[in-house]
Design brief:
By secondary structure, the protein is mainly alpha-helical. About 70% of the residues lie in helices and about 0% in strands. Helix 4 crosses helix 9 (about 155-180).
């Protein structure tokens, strides 16, 4: 029989697993978004490598994620046009695989941090790292402002989720390779994994590039902060990674498509120097507003207290120099401000309180919670004093109650509602739409498809964020009455027909 203390330790993990289920369940109902169809149609017209070059020269330098989405787009792998069941399950399987890869990358990072910072940790095995990974993953999903972009939109998951996985993998492999002496078994494998992950992260997007730059700077300065000399082998690895970073970043930043995309941003009305003069205050304010959102601030507090609460009594604490303290705190601040500063410098420089794009904030929230957990783990090994013996009996129920409160007030509650009450009906309506589009495709290129609007109980949801009252030509799944709108043209292009339009206006959003 489980005693009360064992039960109090088990319940938080059970709560985390229960909170993960609705997000995984909704992935089983995910549908292709409009830009997924556009990508597949471009591949059909230009070929896989031709499409990759087109996107690189006309849209973005994110050659890794665009390459994956172009070469492995499930809609391009289907035998014929249309979202056949086999193609849908390939897409959904890719989304689930990416989500589980994120959890695994988190576990590997926390395990590597545990081995580096607490090699004699009494929490032997992988229980701590798996618990921390699940906690960060669930609390991040619960706090995301736009879960659709990271979880249920195939191109969005690759563009924003895959670089995040690569970044976490690079950090974990760097720590693993750095703690092993030259010639040690497994060192070359970890170094190679770090190199490949670095290429994937930096080639995946600007935010991941900046994050990896901060991590590399920390790896270069860490031996000096601890007043120790890095081994010759590790110095060679750092030199290799710096070279790989700059080469990959050059390919990313130098893409002709970046200049076209940047030219689409609104000009700074106050002049060319305005953004740089106010970049610091703009960044600080935007970062503070991001971190102050209750689901984010509550999750950061819960994670910090949970990690600090695992400190063992009577452990010998290593001395901390001012240089090490400054490097850790400065790295934490820079890691969480670099992405915001990039957006403010190049895209959002005209307003003090302009909201950051939700799809980018998703990544910034995960980075904040991961770095908060890592900072707490570092502080746990250096805080003096002895914690009372009763800390475990009081701490676990308190953390469980706080975690449950966060999950009941964030995206997890919404996910359960959509899984139970919206997802099946959404799937049926989408399948009926695919049947009409496939029938039009069989009639030939001059055919026109008229499809009914989606009627769902939740207009702005997690799985299908559909703009109904104010139609926008974006990457989501809804169409327009006007066949000339971008979404309609993309879908008609994919199905090889003359036009697609809605039969009637979509319903007004519910209050």
């Amino acid at each position: 029989m489980l005693n009360r203390f064992t039960l109090s330790k088990t319940l938080p993990f059970a709560t985390l697993l229960l909170a993960l289920l609705p997000f995984l369940g909704l992935m089983l109902f995910a549908q292709p978004a409009i830009d997924d169809f556009d990508n597949a149609a471009t591949v059909a017209r230009l070929g896989r490598w031709g499409a990759q070059w087109y996107w690189y020269t006309h849209w973005s330098g994110r050659f890794v994620v665009i390459g994956v989405s172009t070469l492995l787009n499930p809609l391009s792998l289907m035998e014929r046009h249309g979202a056949a069941p086999a193609g849908l399950w390939v897409l959904r399987g890719a989304l689930i695989t990416l989500a589980l890869s994120l959890v695994l990358a988190l576990q590997q990072l926390f395990r590597a941090l545990q081995l580096v910072l607490a090699p004699a940790d009494e929490l032997h095995g992988h229980s701590f790292s798996w618990g921390a990974a699940l906690a960060v993953a669930i609390l991040s999903l619960n706090a995301l402002p736009e879960p659709f972009s990271l979880l249920f939109w195939y191109s969005g998951a690759l563009n924003y989720g895959l670089p995040l996985v690569f970044t976490l993998g690079f950090a974990a492999a760097l720590l693993r390779a750095g703690r092993l002496p030259p010639g040690a078994r497994g060192r070359g494998r970890w170094a190679g994994l770090a190199t490949l992950s670095l290429i994937g992260a930096v080639g995946g997007g600007e935010v991941a590039m900046l994050c990896c730059g901060v991590l590399l700077a920390g790896a270069l300065l860490w031996p000096r902060a601890q007043a120790t000399a890095a081994s010759a082998g590790f110095r060679q690895l750092r030199a290799l990674w710096v070279g790989v970073f700059f080469i990959t970043a050059g390919v990313l930043v130098g893409a002709p498509g970046n200049r076209e995309r940047h030219g689409m941003a609104d000009p700074d009305p106050a002049g060319p120097y305005h953004r740089w003069l106010l970049l610091g205050p703009h960044t600080a304010l935007a970062t503070a507003r991001l971190a102050a959102r209750p689901p984010v601030a509550g999750a950061a507090l819960l994670l910090a207290v949970a990690v600090l609460g695992t400190a063992s009594a009577g452990r010998v604490r290593p001395a901390t120099s001012r240089r090490e303290l400054g490097l850790v705190l400065g790295g934490f601040a820079l890691l969480n401000c670099a992405g915001v500063a990039f957006l403010k410098a190049f895209y959002l420089h005209d307003m003090w309180v302009e909201a950051l794009p939700g799809r980018v904030v998703n990544v910034l929230v995960v980075q904040l919670l991961v770095s908060t957990t890592a900072l707490a783990l570092w502080a746990r090994e250096r805080l003096p004093g002895r914690l009372p013996e009763w800390r475990g009996r009081a701490l676990h129920p308190a953390l469980g109650a706080l975690g449950l409160l966060l999950l009941l007030t964030g995206q997890t509650r919404q996910a359960w509602q959509e899984l139970l009450f919206m997802a099946p009906d959404y799937a049926r309506q989408m399948q009926a739409r695919y049947n009409l589009l496939n029938a039009a495709h069989r009639r030939g290129r001059q055919a026109a498809a008229v499809v009914p609007p989606l009627r769902l109980p939740q207009v702005w949801g997690l799985l299908a964020p559909i703009p109904s009252a104010r139609q926008r030509a974006d990457v989501h799944v809804e169409l327009f009455e006007d066949a000339r709108q971008k979404n309609n043209l993309f879908l008609a292009h994919y199905y090889g027909i003359r036009s697609v339009r809605l039969s009637e206006p979509p319903p007004l959003p519910q209050p």
